[in-house]
Amino acid sequence: MDAKLAILLSLFACVLNSIGQAIPYWLVASISEAGLSASVNMGLWSVCVHSDIPGANIDKCLAQWDNRDHSVPIYIIEAGCIEIGASILMFSSTIYGVVRTVIHTPTVVYTTRESGVICILAGIMALAGCIVFASETIAGYYYHVGFALCIVAGLISIISGILYLLARKDTQDMQDIQFTRFA
C-alpha cells in the first residue's frame, strides 16, 4: 500500500473534524406554530437562535463561554476538549506521515507505523468525543451535520491509520537498500 493515500485520508479527516467541531450544528431544534417559528442550533462553542415573530425577527449567535448567565454543561466541555485533542493528533499524524514519506533515502528506514498508531488514536478520540456528546439527550433536539462530520472524520482517521500501518517502501527503493548492503 502506498502511504500517500493514507496522508490524503488523514488530511481529509483532519479538515472534516475541524469543520465539524467549529460549526454550530451539533444539535438542532425547531418549532413552527400559528405563524410563529423558532429554531435553535447548538454546537460545541456557540448557540444560535433564529425566530420569526410578526414584527420582530431574532437571529443571534452566542458564544457559550461568553455568556455569564448560564453554565455550560460539562459534557459539552468534555466533548470539545476531546475533539480538539483528536484534531491535533490527526494533524500531527499527517505531518509526520508527510515527513516520513518525503525523506526516503536508501539509508533511512521507511516506516509510517507511528503515524498509523497516532491516526488510529485520533479516530478513536473523535468517536469518543461524539459518544460523550451523545451521552446526554435533550428532548426535542436531533443531531445534525457537525456531529456527523466528526463521526465520519473519526472513521476516516481509523482507516487512514490502518493504511499507514500497511504502507511499504516502493519496490525500487527496496532494491537500492539491498544493493547498498551487499556492495
TrEMBL record:
Cleavable signal peptide: 1-22
Record's keyword terms, sorted: Membrane, Signal, Transmembrane, Transmembrane helix
Coiled-coil annotated residue ranges, if any: none
Domain of life: Eukaryota
Native source species: Dreissena polymorpha
Record field: transmembrane: 74-103, 115-135, 141-166
Protein name stated in the entry: Claudin
Source organism phylogeny: Eukaryota, Metazoa, Spiralia, Lophotrochozoa, Mollusca
